[in-house]
Amino acid sequence: QPAPSFASGFNLSLLHPGRSCALYLKGKLIGIVGEINPRTISNLGLFDHTCALEIDLEALATTARETFRASSPSLYPSVKQDFSFETGNKMSCAELEECIREGAGETLEDLELFDVYKEEGENPSLTFSVRLRSKEKTLDSQDITKIRDSIISIAQAAGARLKGNC
Question: Whole-prediction pTM value?
Answer without folding.
Answer: 0.59
